[in-house]
Design a protein that fits this description.
- There is one protein chain.
- By secondary structure, this protein is an all-alpha fold.
- It is built from six helices and no strands.
- The chain is elongated, with a radius of gyration of 25 Å.
- The protein starts with 12 loop residues before the first helix and ends with a helix.
- The mean pLDDT is 82.
- This is FT-interacting protein 3.
- Pfam families: PRT_C.
- It comes from Cardamine amara subsp. amara.
Length: 131
């Protein structure tokens, strides 16, 4: 076993103590409570990330489910224009243009989000309707 690869050498002693503890625990209740609180904080962060992903999925579903006529018209128009551009232009040119755009100098970047991203963020999700 490579301890550097598995980061076993950088593990906190409390984490190692938790790993090698017996199953009804032999540690005092304050240590068990600290472990439980750490587990709850990690689970809370995971739940926040999963909730954000679900919100983005609901927005994508509302864009594709044809409920919002304004968003549907813009999306269909965007797909039509993208299909024509991708059909006419060689793939290498498209990859070069995307690469130049992504790697542009910070002086040419804007502080505001892009128009499609701003539009997508403003689409309704179920979390917005829960209030």
């Amino acid at each position: 076993m490579d301890t550097r690869l598995s980061h076993a050498d950088s593990a906190h002693p409390d984490e190692l103590d938790e790993e090698f503890d017996t199953f009804p625990t032999s540690r005092p209740s304050d240590i068990v409570r600290m472990r439980y609180d750490r587990l709850r904080s990690i689970a809370g962060r995971i739940q926040t990330v999963v909730g954000d992903l679900a919100t983005q999925g609901e927005r994508l579903q509302s864009l594709l489910s044809w409920r919002d006529p304004r968003a549907t018209a813009l999306f269909v128009l965007f797909c039509l224009i993208a299909a024509v551009i991708l059909y006419v232009t060689p793939f290498q040119v498209i990859a070069l243009c995307i690469g130049i755009y992504v790697l542009r100098h910070p002086r040419f970047r804007y502080k505001l989000p892009s128009v499609p991203l701003n539009f997508f963020r403003r689409l309704p999700a179920r979390t917005d309707c829960m209030l």
